[in-house]
Design a protein that fits this description.
Helices cover about 45% and strands about 25% of the residues. It has about 300 residues and is α/β, with parallel strands linked by helices. The strands form 2 sheets. Strands 3, 4, 5, 6, 7, 8, 9, 10, 11 and 12 form a 10-stranded mixed sheet that branches. Strands 1-2 form a two-stranded antiparallel sheet.
Length: about 300
Amino acid sequence: MELRQLEYLVAVAEEANFTRAAERIHVAQPAVSAQIQRLERELGQILVDRSRRAVRLTAAGEAVLPYARAALGAVRDMHVAADELTQLVRGTVTIGTVTSHNVDMPQLLADFHAEHPNVEITLGTESSDNLIENVRTGELDVAIASVGPDEVPDGLDIEVVTDEAIEAAMCRADPLAKRKTIRLADLRDRTLIALPAGAGIRHQFDRACARAGVTPRIAFEASTPLALADLAERGLGVAIVPASVPRGRADLHAVSFVPELRGRLVLAWRSAGPISPAARVLIDRARRLLRVSGHA
């Protein structure tokens, strides 16, 4: 028994015609007939009723058909598995991130590279909106981006990296240090210290200011929330930071926004459509890292 015999049987069953079946699989019609006859001799059963204008399977043919399809499907799956292994050995992965996050990306990539040294890895930074769109269109395989509270972008799956309130932090001598809450409008004329544009917390802060009709005056930018807090402690302005940053700093006072602002960073990848085997392995590794480290 040969696989092509099963392929020809399935084609004849689906086309109900020897000529159309031959055209579909790009062989001569006599070859289709000959191979099905060989299959019938081997099985000792007539599989195709040729007495009518529209070719139909006999009861024996109908009984054999599901197994023929299953055998062909298994062969296709075998080819896919082999192709995936090749891609995993010599594939590519493209990753995008916001400019500031607390995922140990160097360790993640180093571990992945140690196991798959021939996979080419590309890492870049971009604004959250662009990252989300680039993952959605397939330009990126995976990204660390900022999304709104409870937001799951269309077409993507996510793993939460961080989800915490955004606060305003200032030195104890600042007039705002007497307050427990503020509104965005209270910062309209204040000197602000923030992460670079496109970073997760900055992204949510800028979006909230736009909704509130406030144009923030960003005088200082730093690449990490801890650096923002250091600048605020020295009286250089009001820092926009995650709620966890000011805790334990005696020279820093934090106030909450009303309504509350939250910063939510997620690992995002396509929920549908093609994902390379190499990207799938990296995504699984990143998700495990987040869970073990307590981010998610």
